[in-house]
Amino acid sequence: MKVAYFHFDAGFLPLLPYARRVSGFDLYFRGPQSVKHLIESLGVPHTEIGPMAANGKSIGLDYIVHDGDQIQVQPEAPEVCQTEPRFVLDGHLGRLAAHLRMLGLDCLYRNDYNDPELAKASSSESRILLTRDRRLLMQKIITQGYLLRSLDPDEQLREVVWRYQLVQWIKPFQRCLRCNYPLADVRKDAILDRLEPLTKLYFDEFRICPACRHIYWKGSHYEKMQKVIEQIRAGG
Predict the structure, then answer these.
(1) Where are the beta strands (DSSP E) in 13-69?
(2) What dotted CATH number matches 2-75?
(3) Of 67, 105, 169, 200, which one is least surrounded by beta carbons within 10 A?
(4) Tens of pLDDT along 69-103?
């Protein structure tokens, strides 16, 4: 039996088993084990891991832990994306997908995605996987992902905006909230037969999704969304 001492940053404590939520602890293990495997055995996906050190020297996820090692683990820091980030969300995050699309971000979402489909979309299309499923994020094929802490969609939105510093990428009302396709302007007379009487009377500017044909206009829902966007921008 071998033993290594692990010290996790305080930000990891809610993810660790209850008995391990202390400043540091010994972890016993058998055979050759990578630091990735040992950390994930504690319930922390590798996508949450930032800089690490063994005995004061920087290491990567493939580092083989030795008997007596002193391991320090820091969380992944907020990331300033150099190119516009794209996301894929698991089937429990429909409202978060709509919120991110409202901000103009490219988000793949279906409520019937299975784990292999999510992993493939994340890997092959370089999309950040958003989920509350720790085991899903532990798949080696996934290199970009975030484990959402909150169950509340509004708080989840704030988490993602902070984690990926999304304020600079906000382009509101550019995507269909239903299917993610970029919206296009449409003349009122071209859709008149699809509008309710009061909508015909009070609104003149419309956009349409070329994919699913859903129509958008600046009704009361637009004002509510504007308030959410203003709060997001103000919070940074």
Answers:
(1) 25-29, 33-34, 49-54, 57-59, 64-65
(2) 3.10.20.30
(3) 67
(4) 999 999 998 988 889 999 999 999 999 999 999 99
